[in-house]
Design goal:
The chain is an alpha/beta fold and 347 residues long. The chain contains 13 helices and 12 strands. Helix 1 runs parallel beside helix 10, helix 6 packs across helix 9 and helix 9 packs across helix 10.
């Protein structure tokens, strides 16, 4: 690099979305903060994602609101007018992010290696991270910290939660209470498991003495799914879907004993809090996007799905296609992982 890492004064991080990805990015940026405690860090981030991370210490956030269309780029340029960063970490492969990066003045502009630098990213960067053959998203992000001289890449998270949100979680989960949280909905409905199967696992948890809670966002899809699960359940479960902010949800996930989720943001939020996660995967490779600290508890039919669709070597990160792939995940396989968590984490 043309900038000595030890002489860096300012760094800009560009990662707009999504919730799971910004959770991975937190581990990376906090590794940088531990190595360079006086470095001034600015994070260009999406509007929703900011709501989760806005209390992170030592970081200046600049919100990029994509709902504003072309004005979002104008507003970003205004927000950074007159600024000059020593380093830009361009950590999002999307045309939107490539265009947004043009509003960020920086001497050294680090992007992904050529194999991963899609959507024109290689056109707006002048340095690349080391290539990795089969990285988890978090490991791919840690490559940016490594590129500026950070040696301790062990993922650690410290996401502050306001006192009021902690008290909200305490009002729903008592100290020492065994709680099983189901975050049932992913951003795309095809990644959701079947409501009756969620309910079957919820019934199992109830019989094991757990309090069962449903959590998630305010979309109608999520509310409808939660209602279907509730109706199919033979015992009482607490439905908080659409009733929590992101930081309230984070506080709940921290106090939970165990979380069940498909490929969705709350699975990674739970990981940041050290809570074990049973991840349900069919469309994406859990080796790349699974809950980082709970890979041993993932229930995956991805290999089976992708093998039925492609022959020969499959490019890392390839998604399996199909609206019914999650139906290949059995209740029995999930309960088996639940029992493993009971034995190794909660015993």
């Amino acid at each position: 690099m043309s900038v000595d890492p030890n002489s860096m004064n300012s760094l800009c991080l560009l990662r707009l979305s999504a919730i799971g990805d910004v959770c991975h990015a937190v581990a990376m940026v906090q590794a940088i903060q531990r190595h360079y405690p006086t470095l001034k860090i600015t994070w260009v981030i999406g509007k929703l994602e900011y709501q989760l991370l806005k209390h992170l210490p030592g970081i200046e956030f600049v919100i990029f609101d994509k709902s504003q269309g072309w004005r979002s780029y104008v507003n970003l340029r205004k927000a950074l007018s007159g600024r000059q960063f020593d380093v830009l970490l361009h950590m999002q492969v999307a045309l939107r992010a490539t265009l947004a990066s043009l509003a960020i003045p920086a001497k050294v502009r680090i992007g992904f290696d050529r194999a991963r630098a899609k959507e024109g990213q290689w056109l707006v960067t002048n340095h690349r991270v080391e290539p990795l053959a089969t990285p988890h998203v978090l490991e791919g992000f840690m490559g940016f910290a490594k590129a500026i001289g950070v040696s301790d890449l062990t993922p650690k998270w410290d996401i502050p939660v306001p006192k009021a949100d902690t008290e909200f979680a305490q009002s729903h989960i008592a100290e020492g209470e065994k709680v099983f949280i189901i975050c049932a909905a992913a951003s795309k409905a095809e990644r959701n498991w079947l409501p009756k199967r969620y309910a079957a696992v919820a019934n199992y948890a109830l019989n094991q003495g757990f309090k069962v809670m449903l959590c998630g966002g305010p979309t109608q899809q999520e509310k409808t799914l939660a209602e279907s699960i509730t109706q199919a359940c033979s015992g009482p479960i607490v439905n908080l879907v659409g009733q929590t902010s992101l930081t309230q949800l984070l506080a709940l996930l921290k106090r939970a004993s165990l979380v069940l989720a498909p490929d969705t943001g709350p699975a990674h939020m739970a990981t940041t809090q050290g809570t074990p996660v049973i991840g349900l995967y069919a469309h994406s490779n859990p080796g790349r996007t699974g809950p980082y600290l709970s890979q041993q508890y993932v229930v995956s039919v991805y290999d089976k799905a992708i093998a039925s669709q492609q022959s020969g070597e499959v490019k890392w990160g390839t998604r399996a296609k199909g609206a019914d792939l999650m139906a290949f995940i059995s209740v029995e396989a999930v309960i088996e992982k639940f029992e493993s968590v009971l034995q190794f984490e909660l015993g």
